[in-house]
Design goal:
Layout lengths: L3 E4 L3 E2 L8 E2 L2 E3 L8 E4 L1 E2 L3 E3 L7 E2 L12 E3 L7 E2 L12 E3 L7 E2 L11 E3 L7 E2 L12 E3 L7 E2 L12 E3 L7 E2 L12 E3 L7 E2 L12 E3 L13
Parallel strand pairs: 2-8, 3-6, 4-7, 7-9, 9-11, 10-12, 11-13, 13-15, 14-16, 15-17, 17-19, 18-20, 19-21
Antiparallel strand pairs: 1-5
Length: 228
């Protein structure tokens, strides 16, 4: 038997998943117009809230979903990722927050030891810094493409010791420096194509010892030297 609950249009409330029956899947589809009537299942492994009109998620909203390994929040209207927004999702391995309008990620937003993939592409991030990604020690695949990133502060990725794929394509970077990649010791694939890069500082990639693919195509470079 399914149970229905009424969620406020435009937001997800922190008691939204508190009373559930057993199962594995929750889904809110784009057909849900006006008030949402959500049929959901206790402790699902997959939660899909994509293609809706969610503007905010209160802390503790997902705290009952201890077994959830995939959360899809893509194509909504989120503007920031707040502290404790994903509290309780201890089994989370894949997170989709792409195609929102996120322009900031507050410190303490992540503390997920199993999180393996994050899709932050197609948002409005402009400047990324170290505090944003603290707690992502198992992250391996990281999509930050199609944002508005103009700079990467030194040490931004220093927590990401296991990250092997980083996609920064289709942003607004103009230069590449060595300190951008501090801590990315396991990186294999780095995508910097379709930016506005005009300068690559000497030794910019020298610490990426394991990197097999560095894509810098479709930028604004006019010269290339052996010291890159």
């Amino acid at each position: 038997m399914h149970h229905s609950n009424h969620l406020q249009t435009g937001s997800v409330l922190n008691d939204g998943f508190a009373h559930c029956v057993s199962g594995f899947l929750l889904q809110v589809s784009s057909w849900a117009v006006g008030p949402w009537y959500v049929w959901y299942l206790t402790d699902p492994k997959t939660v899909r809230l994509n293609d809706s009109r969610i503007t905010a998620i209160q802390p503790g909203t997902f705290s009952q979903l201890k077994m959830c390994s995939m959360l899809n929040l893509s194509s909504n209207q989120l503007t920031e990722v707040k502290r404790d927004m994903f509290e309780g999702l201890n089994a989370l391995r894949t997170l989709y927050v792409d195609h929102n309008i996120i322009n900031d990620i507050l410190p303490g937003a992540f503390s997920h030891p199993k999180l393996h993939e994050i899709y932050f592409n197609n948002n409005k991030l402009t400047n990324i810094r170290k505090a944003m990604w603290k707690g992502l020690h198992s992250l391996a695949i990281f999509h930050l493409d199609h944002n508005l990133i103009t700079d990467i502060q030194p040490g931004t990725f220093s927590h990401l010791k296991k990250c092997w794929m980083l996609n920064l394509s289709h942003n607004k970077l103009t230069e590449v420096r060595q300190d951008m990649w501090d801590g990315l010791d396991a990186l294999w694939h780095l995508h910097l194509d379709h930016n506005f890069i005009i300068n690559i500082q000497q030794g910019a990639f020298s610490q990426l010892k394991r990197c097999e693919i560095i894509d810098i195509s479709s930028n604004k470079l006019t010269t290339a030297g052996k010291d890159m």
